[in-house]
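quick one before i forget lol
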Amino acid sequence: MRCTDHAGMRLLYFRRPSQQVTSFPLQVSETLQMNRTKMQTAEPAQQAIENLYEKVAQDVVGFMVDCQMNDGHVNVGNLQFAFDYAYRPLLRFWRDFELKTVIEAVTRQYPHWHAVAETRQRTAVDVLREVEELLACHAFDEANAEMMMALPLTARPRDEDAASEWICSELRKRKLKRELRFAQQGGWRCGERAFEILHCIEEAKFGLEFWRLPTHVARTYRNRCLAGH
C-alpha cells in the first residue's frame, strides 16, 4: 500500500513518545535528581532499542545477501521485502524502527547503491523518503493494533471488517481527521493490517509463532534462493 497522506502520519506515529514535562516549580536539587533518575531509566531502554535494530540490520543485510542481491537491487521494494523478513512481533517495532542503523549496514554491504540509483534518475534521498512513507504506514497499523489490544477481549472487534469499522469510529470520536482519511484509503483495509499485527504480538506472548503474510512470503523466497530455485 502506498501512503498518499503520509506527512502527518510520519510525525504522529513514526517517532518515540516524548518525555512528560513537569508544569510545577521544583527545587533545583529535586529537578537534578529527577533528571538523573530519568536518564538512568532511559539509558537501558535506549540501549535495548539500539541492540535490537543492530540485529535487525544484520538480518536485513543477511536476507539481501542470501537472495543474491547487489547494489542495483537496493530499492524501496527490496528494502521493504528485507524489513518484512527481519520483522519482530514487538509492540513498537515499526514506530521505533531505527532506519539510520539499518541503512548504514546496507550501505556497508552495498557501497555503490547511491550511484546506481542516480543512473536510474533517482537519488538515495528519493529512495529513503519512500521507505519512510512505508514505515509510517506500518507504524499507523501498529498504533491501531495497540488501540485494539487495550480493549477487554470481550469488547474487541471479532473480524477484520469489524476492526476497520471500530478503528474508523475511534479515530472519528477522537477527531483525528487526517488519520481517519488515511484509515479509509485502500478499501478500508486498516482493520486487516492491524488485526494481523495484533495476532503476531499476542501469539508471541505465549511463545507461539504467527507470521505476518509479508514475513511469510519473504522467508519463503529466501529459502528458495538458498535452495537454488
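fyi The CA atoms of residues 118 and 190 lie 34 Å apart.
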